[in-house]
């Protein structure tokens, strides 16, 4: 079975496989019921197309297929993935990963390996995945960055002033805005951070290191 976002691609690949002697049960564009279709037809191998192998939840159909039909070998068909994309595909239960620019001979070899119970993935892709697992890149303080991305530059300045202990009047005077506008900014900051008070906002900003990152941004916006 061939399942892909682009019906034309799915049908072309299915036709090419038929010409090489394979019996293709169906070619369908993925939708809410794509996994159910695979489960209902129970092919030996399913080629499942994906456009974003690193996107969260993209391999949920693979999980569902393997849960309901563990005997079906699922080959992910997608673009050149990141090592994390390869790892996510196999973690979901895929039997292999085939690049969309692979020649039909390569697709056929992957199908043969999957039917034999072997991992079907190009050696260079597998080496990249293992390389990242063995030598993971250092990750930044994701929590502080996530919080900063939620706030506008003006809200960042308000947060810094709140952490400095400024009340609404001083925030308004320092930023050249009306007290009512300052109160609105403060309330938006509290809401976005998911806290109930200025003290909690200041504590969260300090704990995550957000203040250290926010100060240079505040200086740049002032210029």
From TrEMBL:
A Pfam family recorded for this sequence: GerE
SUPFAM superfamilies membership: C-terminal effector domain of the bipartite response regulators (SSF46894), CheY-like (SSF52172)
UniProt GO BP: phosphorelay signal transduction system; regulation of DNA-templated transcription
Domain Response regulatory positions: 1-115
Annotated protein name in UniProt: Transcriptional regulator
Record-annotated HTH luxR-type domain positions: 144-209
GO molecular function terms attached to this record: DNA binding
Domain of life of the source: Bacteria
Keywords assigned by UniProt, alphabetized: DNA-binding, Transcription, Transcription regulation
Keyword Lipid metabolism: no
Keyword Transcription regulation (UniProt): yes
